[in-house]
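To illustrate the input format used throughout this study, we show a single complete record. The first block contains the structure-token representation of the backbone; no residue identities are included at this stage. The design step must infer an amino acid for every position from geometry alone.
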């Protein structure tokens, strides 16, 4: 259990966890247990705001998305979790397929979030959007040097790119989309090419990729867009910029994914869980995603940060988010076959 990070409001809950290694099984309605696959800094401020607004205490378990979904599956009917939040639609689809989530979405959340960002049965709801983009060093690369994500596999980028490792949900989702658009052969060529071109510049965190590009250790990298804007917010003079790939005629379009939320099927606190879903999909909650994280709000009445490329004018890859679950395993096989680690 060392790989998990816990945040508890109440010494009694913390004592039980330390003494027994398990979460308490309290049934009070003014408390929620959230399993989160998101980086803590990206979600905890919103959960804190919800707690302050409603008086509902939130106990947060943070780990990798794959780990929290696996934990939820392993715990089965014994899980203390009420809500699942992940950074990837594919993992939410996987949880839905495993019947870990309940189609308990509220009318407010369904009305707030467009259908393309929700499960078919509304068992999960998207919270914020992100594009998988190319970050480039402005002193080393010109925007005209690259049009497509697939161009990064070309030999001219040998020893010039930084990429996520094989365990990255972002990589897995991106490869899933490329596979759906171009098929296995071209996807494998892309993977083998970026592996060769990255060499040792393979990172476990997107922030490390942005840092490497900012320092000139790599000319380009592949990350979610908000990591670039968060870096620039603290280091505005950094020589980095976002290149939105595949916008040309005939290009596949940019790869989009969402963080999202689902109510755990076994919860006894459905009403409180629904209140959290309503809050995070409300205009107030969506504005926090936009302001704090530089993510794209999914609520139609909430504007994204003005520094981001406009969503409405961005060509998006034509692969429904609901397909990312079924594509995940085949994509991971291709990643493994290409020798990515």
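Output of the design step:
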């Amino acid at each position: 259990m060392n790989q998990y990070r816990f945040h508890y409001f109440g010494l009694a809950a913390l004592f039980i966890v330390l003494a027994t290694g398990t979460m308490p099984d309290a049934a009070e309605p003014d408390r929620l247990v959230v399993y989160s696959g998101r980086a803590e800094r990206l979600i905890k401020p919103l959960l804190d705001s919800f707690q302050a607004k409603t008086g509902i205490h939130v106990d947060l378990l943070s780990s990798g998305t794959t780990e929290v979904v696996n934990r939820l599956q392993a715990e089965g009917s014994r899980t203390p979790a009420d809500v699942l939040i992940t950074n990837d639609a594919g993992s939410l689809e996987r949880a839905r397929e495993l019947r870990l989530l309940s189609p308990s979405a509220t009318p407010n959340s369904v009305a707030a979030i467009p259908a393309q960002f929700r499960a078919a049965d509304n068992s999960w709801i998207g919270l914020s959007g992100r594009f998988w983009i190319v970050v480039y060093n402005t002193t080393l690369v010109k925007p005209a040097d690259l049009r497509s994500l697939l161009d990064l596999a070309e030999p001219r980028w040998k020893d010039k790119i930084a990429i996520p490792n094989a365990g990255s949900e972002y990589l897995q989702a991106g490869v899933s989309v490329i596979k759906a658009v171009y098929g296995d052969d071209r996807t494998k060529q892309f993977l083998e090419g970026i592996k060769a071109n990255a060499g040792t510049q393979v990172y476990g965190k997107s922030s490390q990729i942005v840092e490497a590009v900012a320092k000139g250790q790599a000319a380009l990298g592949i990350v979610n867009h908000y990591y670039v804007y968060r870096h620039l917010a603290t280091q505005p003079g950094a020589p980095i910029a976002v290149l939105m790939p595949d916008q040309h005629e005939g290009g596949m379009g940019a790869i989009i994914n969402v963080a999202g939320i689902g109510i755990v099927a076994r919860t006894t606190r459905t009403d409180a869980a629904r209140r959290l879903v309503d809050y995070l999909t409300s205009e107030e909650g969506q504005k926090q995603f936009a302001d704090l994280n530089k993510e794209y709000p999914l609520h139609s009445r909430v504007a994204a940060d003005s520094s981001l490329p406009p969503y409405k004018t961005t060509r998006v890859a034509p692969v429904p988010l609901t397909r990312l679950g079924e594509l995940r395993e085949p994509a991971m096989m291709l990643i493994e076959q290409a020798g990515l680690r």
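Structural context for interpreting the output: The chain has a mean pLDDT of 91. The chain has two domains: 5-129+257-297, 130-255+320-337.
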